[in-house]
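JOB MANIFEST
job_type = single_chain_structure
chain_count = 1
residues = 144
[input]
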Amino acid sequence: MSRLIQIQNPTTIRNRNRRSIAEILRRLPQKKAVDGEAKDMAATIVLLLREIYTGVEQSAVAWEKKDYWLKAERFMREWRWTIEIAADMDDVIRHDAWDLLPELLVLLYPHFGDIAVKTMTRDASLWQGAYRKLMAEPPIERTW
């Protein structure tokens, strides 16, 4: 059996997702009302934050196997905000508490300030159907 090579490692996925979220954070506040597209955009942020955290967990597990316990713990702590904000946004979306969304978006901005968005490279296909997908998944369990 040949060795399986993963082309997209957690760092690549994390960087791609951060860029996508940064672009959505530029577009979402321009929406005048919470329409279907705004719901899809917010749901996409939740799904991408979940994916980032999953990659962080994978990296931490790999470091723990090599006995890099402190590095793994520090890395998990550094990225814990992703799953916390994702859970908060998930609650907002599931309970139609859209008036709370701007507060959560403000919490996200400092984490994406280092990403320069000069041109929008993501199109609407990125978030289309994300609301329906998120609602079909179980809510995030808060275990922290």
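[summary]
The helical segments are 10-27, 36-65, 69-94, 101-112, 130-136.
The chain has a mean pLDDT of 92.
exit_status = 0
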